[in-house]
Specification:
heterodimer, A: 265 residues, mainly alpha, 11 helices, B: 213 residues, alpha/beta, Rossmann fold, 4-stranded antiparallel beta sheet, 31% helix
């Protein structure tokens, strides 16, 4: 059993629903009309292309191709993290790339190679979507954590410097800011886990049930992915805070003036 | 001995100190006046490494202040600003805050020592149990000074602390600063400080206009 296909005309019927948000946007002049249209068009094109590409990847199912695709996802996610967190690209890029790579690939390895163990082990049907879910969550967590951490220090410079002047190391002087950043990054996943199954049926589970899996399989996957997401978000945000800190401070212990992009400073 | 030699500092694309040359001897009491933006705070903060020098050099106790020497400078120099950072716990927690850092841990003071130092600033031992949110602005500054004394600081950079201190509090602080071997550089417009401190410096637009001793 698999899901009933949605044909292109059927999909257009669903797209017609967009008239509702577009009307609200237009009537109240939210200034979002253009960006909403662009977003919908981009989403459609991106997913159509990814659909073609995934079809290709699933069919070939080659180890090299799968790893290259994971690398592409990591590079794009890492760019988005630095851009959205308002940090300069170089030389932080390789540091945070290492952070998200370790955080997502290690957890992905336990999940796919250890728990699911498909044949072949690098089966694209498992590796790519699960890797994408971990990476997407890791990316959001990192954006929140890095933004919160560095803007927290910049906005409370008096407090930060007073610790430094009293003899604190960078690690000691930033401990409170680190706590706030990690808490902000992890809180959404914690609350998602708390309400899961009651407020909403999670996307992955819904997808599997629509795809014909029995609910028990869908639920075990969902439980496993939530734990995997939480682990990789915690590990990734912590690693990236620590790794970026190696460059983010001057040898005098102050925040580098060129760390944050001018528009965010 | 603190020595600024042709010190220039830029921050945010603006020059905040220009060719500042100034020598302050150990035990000297100096007070700086000047309009807003004259670079008074920048002069104090530069000694503690808050800014990168774009020119010149700073000497402390005979050797140049490099990034690796900053830890030693920070061990003996205290910066007391208008609003000291005391955290949101009790005064005792605020006093002990720097002793959570590895660099100070071995010197963690006992209760008797805390009370003794507080008494130098005319603060009762009972204040230790009060929350920092309920002590007055003037008391906060006296607590910050007490904390610096407990840390064994010998140089005080006091940045416009008189605005928060009442007359009695200002008297206590000034008496302490004028005593003995402490080196003090204060930013203040209070004429009393200018009368009592031996060295009077005036600044404008990032430069030193005059030093009178």
């Amino acid at each position: 059993m698999s899901a009933i296909r949605i044909s292109i005309p059927d999909l257009l019927l669903v797209y017609a629903l967009l008239l509702v948000p577009l009307t609200i946007t237009a009537v109240y002049r939210l200034g979002l009309l253009k960006s909403t249209v662009v977003a919908v068009v981009r989403m459609t094109i991106q997913l159509a292309l990814v659909g073609l590409y995934l079809g290709f990847i699933f069919e070939r199912n080659s180890l090299i191709l799968n790893l290259v695709w994971l690398l592409v996802m990591l590079l794009v996610a890492n760019s988005a993290i630095l851009r959205s967190a308002g940090l300069t690209r170089w030389p932080i890029f390789p540091m945070t790339l290492l952070g998200i790579a370790v955080a997502t690939l290690s957890v992905l390895a336990v999940f796919v190679l250890g728990a699911v163990a498909p044949d072949p082990l690098y089966d694209a049907r498992y590796l790519i979507p699960l890797g994408g879910m971990l990476l997407g969550n890791c990316m959001r967590g990192n954006i929140i954590a890095l933004e919160r951490f560095y803007s927290g220090i910049a906005e409370n410079e008096r407090e930060f410097l007073s610790y430094v002047f009293m003899g604190a190391t960078t690690t000691e002087a930033t401990r409170g800011f680190m706590r706030n950043a990690l808490r902000a990054a992890l809180a959404p996943t914690v609350s998602t886990m708390t309400t899961m199954g009651i407020v909403s049926l999670p996307g992955m589970m819904t997808g599997q049930i629509l795809g014909g899996s029995d609910p028990t399989t869908a639920i075990t996957y969902q439980l496993a992915i939530m734990v995997a997401i939480f682990t990789s978000v915690s590990l990734g945000t912590w690693l990236n805070l620590r790794l970026s800190m190696r460059w983010a401070f001057t040898d005098r212990g102050t925040l580098r003036p060129d760390l944050r992009r001018p528009s965010h400073a | 001995m603190i020595e600024y030699r042709d010190v220039s500092v830029s921050a945010g694309g603006r020059k905040i100190l220009t060719d500042v040359t100034l020598a302050i001897a150990t035990g000297e009491k100096a007070v700086i006046a000047g309009p807003t933006g004259a670079g008074k705070s920048a002069l104090l903060l530069t000694l503690l490494g808050a800014y990168e020098l774009s020119g010149g050099a700073i000497g402390f106790d005979g050797s140049p202040v490099t990034a690796s020497r900053l830890a030693a400078v920070r061990r003996s120099v205290a910066y007391i600003g208008q609003e000291p950072v005391l955290g949101d716990g009790t005064v005792r927690e605020a006093m002990l805050l720097p002793f959570r850092f590895a660099a100070n841990r071995a010197a963690t003071p006992d209760e008797r020592h805390l009370e003794e130092v507080l008494s130098h600033l005319h603060l009762e031992p009972a204040i230790l149990d009060r929350r920092t949110s309920v002590v007055s602005g003037g008391e906060k500054q006296r607590i910050a000074i007490a904390r610096a004394l407990v840390l064994g600081k010998e140089v005080f950079l006091a940045d416009e602390i008189t605005s928060a201190l009442d007359t009695a509090g200002a008297e206590v602080v000034m008496d302490l600063f004028r005593r003995g071997s402490y080196t003090v550089i204060a930013v203040s417009h209070d004429p009393v400080w200018h009368q009592r401190f031996g060295t009077r410096i005036s600044m404008e637009a990032g430069r030193i206009l005059e030093v009178r001793r």
